[in-house]
Amino acid sequence: MPELIHRKTEQKEVLHYPQLDTVLMVEKFIHEHSGEFKKKSLWEHLPRKMMYQTFSLIIDYLMESGKIAVDQEGKIAWVWDPEGVRRYLARKDLSWN
Asked: What domain count does the chain have?
């Protein structure tokens, strides 16, 4: 499996934030096509068109929240696994309390 790179983004002045349905659409598309596309190609293949600045803002958010990562080739992969987190949280032998 290729090494994934997490990038810390700079603070930018945002004039308009994307709507929730737009963020969810991008999340779903990345989840279904994990590791297939680089950033610009992913934007071009989305089911609905949007401005590239809006798309970039969503990608920055998803990277900051740990839901996606970029491999060495620049392809975007879905890395968030809430079910795996639930399994580990349920294990008593892993508790720090």
From this structure: 1
Exposure b/e, 25-56, CB count within 10 A at least 16 = b: bbbebbeebeeebeeeebbeebeeebeeebbe
What's the pTM? Answer: 0.77
pLDDT digits (tens, 9 = 90+) for 43-74: 999 999 999 999 999 999 999 999 999 999 99
Residue 63 lies in a domain: yes
Tell me, what DSSP letter sits at residue 9? P
71 in a structural domain: yes
**Domain interval for residue 54:** 17-94
Distance of CA 83 to the CA centre of its chain: 17
Quick one: CA torsion of 57, 58, 62, 68, rounded to 10 degrees? -110
